[in-house]
Amino acid sequence: METNNIANEIATTTSVISSEALLAHWQGHRKLSRKVIEAFPEDQFYTYSIGGMRTFAQLTMEMIGLAAPGIRGVVFGDWTFTEPVLDSSTPAPATKAEVLNLWDLVTEYIDHLWPQIPAQRFQETEAAFGQYENTIIGTILYLIDNEIHHRAQGYVYLRALGIEPPFFWDRY
Amino acid sequence: METNNIANEIATTTSVISSEALLAHWQGHRKLSRKVIEAFPEDQFYTYSIGGMRTFAQLTMEMIGLAAPGIRGVVFGDWTFTEPVLDSSTPAPATKAEVLNLWDLVTEYIDHLWPQIPAQRFQETEAAFGQYENTIIGTILYLIDNEIHHRAQGYVYLRALGIEPPFFWDRY
Question: Which DSSP category does A116 fall into?
Fold first, then answer.
């Protein structure tokens, strides 16, 4: 009977994605974002803009500056920013190579911290970055969606510059 | 013992999002996309483009033309296109009002079909649209991500036109 109860509970709250699959999904998107950074000419990465929007360097720093403290907050519930500050207003390093290096450090950081997320944690509600009340899974999806959104601005910048961006499905 | 085995299995494949929550997530994004369509001036919706990219009318038709046959395929495994064809190459209706009407029909269609997705279906592997081999959950995430991606192009178009787009978190 107890087995049946558990089985029923699973059926009514059908799990559609596992923790491991969601990590792979996020990192797949991060691989594509890395390719978009690589596709930019060095100077345009720091200077090109449309309609008064931020440069792709600034948008990249938002992705990095949300992902790194984001995964820390997700795992430990610590949403403070410590010195040296790495947040979405952190200026981009002077070269694309340094930005890509920072990107790769964040990739490793996420891979390192992710398996430490307690199973029940995903459904907990908490103010992300001390201000955005959401479930932890909601915050994680927000980080991924925000990256897809800003990366797509990079696609338009590249097209406007006459550069072919990577395929959207190229997440390897 | 059997109960423990099931409990262990759950623990090692931590569920992070339920079917109901994923539907709400998708429909939240669709509400935001609808607002982006609404924000476009009628003429620019059909004509404005940057870097040779598609107009937002065409991008909207891609979203509609993937979502509708997409959810049908997800639920029934039927990936054929029937006449009248509604796919990503379907021309947009002549007015924004008609496009929005079509959008709302797809919203209802998704709400109607989603609860019919069998629980085990999400992890099945199948060639979406007869050609994109993926798990069903992978295909659903692709539909959502693709919409975020193309909608973001609309954000850039609006900014370039001097129009303030809706807030990214405004999914209500």
Answer: G
Chain B residue numbers with beta carbons less than 8 Å from the beta carbon of A149 are: 148-149, 151-152, 155, 168
- For residue A150, give how far its alpha carbon lies from the nearest alpha carbon of chain B (Å): 7
Largest alpha-carbon pair distance within chain B? 66
Tell me: pLDDT of B2 over 70: no
Which class for B155: exposed (0-12), middle (13-18), buried (19 or more C-beta within 10 A)?
buried
pLDDT tens-digit series, residues B33-86:
999 999 999 999 999 999 999 999 999 999 999 999 999 999 999 997 665 556
Interacting residues of B113 by C-beta distance below 8 A, sequence separation 6+: B71, B72, B74, B75
Question: Residue B80 and residue B128: Cα distance in Å, rounded?
Answer: 10
- B140 and B124 in contact (C-beta within 8 Å)? no
**What is the domain class of A18-160 according to CATH?**
mainly alpha
Instruction: Collapse the DSSP code of B135 into the 3-class scheme (helix H, G, I; strand E, B; otherwise coil) and give the result.
Output: strand
Is A160's CB within 8 Å of B51's CB? yes
A112-142: string of b/e by CB count within 10 Å (b at 16+)? eebeebeeebbbeebebeeeeebbbbbbbbb
CB proximity under 8 Å: B 80-99 to A: none
The DSSP output letter for B127 is E
Q: Classify the phi-psi angles of B55: left when phi > 0, otherwise alpha if psi is within -120 to 50, otherwise beta.
A: beta
Neighbouring-strand partners of residue A127: A133
Q: Which residue ranges make up each domain of chain B?
A: 18-160
- Whether A150 and A30 have beta carbons less than 8 Å apart is answered as no
B150 to A152: CB separation less than 8 angstroms, yes or no? yes
Range of lowest pLDDT (A28-42, A126-140, B77-91, B151-165): B77-91
Query: Could you read off the pLDDT of A67-96 as tens digits, one per residue?
Result: 999 999 999 999 976 655 566 667 889 999
ipTM of the complex: 0.90
